[in-house]
Amino acid sequence: MKQAYEEYRVSASTLRRIIDRDHGMRINHDRIHRILVELEYAKPLNKQHKRKKNWIRYERRHNLTAVRIDWYFDSKNEVLVFAIIDDASRKMLALLEVESATTDWSIEGIELALRHGR
Fold first, then answer.
1. Pairing with 12, which of 40, 53, 83, 94 sits 20 to 30 Å away (CA)?
2. Would you tell me the crossing angle of helices 12-23 and 29-38 to the nearest 10 degrees?
3. How far apart, in whole angstroms, are the C-alpha atoms of residue 37 and residue 8?
4. Residue from 60, 66, 58, 100 nearest 84 by CA
């Protein structure tokens, strides 16, 4: 490990791949970092790694801010199905069964969802 670091001078995670490639040894990058700290080639980490970005829950002010709209062909009944589903509650807001997928039917479905969602 000392020879590999002196030759390449890279971080522990990159050194892990180099050691695996050149010597066929699989060593965890955390262990490599600890050894590099003991050899004084690296500095110890001051604190644990944290997530770079905190997870923020999506909150809505009102209904219909996030919906799923999709056309589906039902081969059993040979009919097209247009559905609008609310993302948060998974409630079906509109469902149409029609012979052909047109813009007019899409608009009709959206208007139905708006009436039902309020």
1. 53
2. 110
3. 16
4. 66
pLDDT single digits (tens) 21-38: 999 999 998 899 999 999
Residue 93: burial class (beta carbons within 10 Å; 0-12, 13-18, 19+): buried
Q: Three-state secondary structure along 16-39?
A: HHHHHHHHCCCCCHHHHHHHHHHC
Phi and psi angles of residue 106, each rounded to the nearest 5 degrees, phi first:
-65, -45
Q: Is 71 helix (H, G, I), strand (E, B) or coil?
A: strand
Q: Could you report the per-residue pLDDT of 50-88, keeping only the tens digit for each?
A: 666 776 666 666 656 778 899 999 889 899 999 998 877
Give me 19's structure tokens. 């050691």
The pair of structure tokens assigned to 99 is 């012979």
Indicate the pTM of the whole model: 0.46
Q: Which residue has the tokens 């409630």?
A: 91
CA-based end-to-end distance of the chain: 65
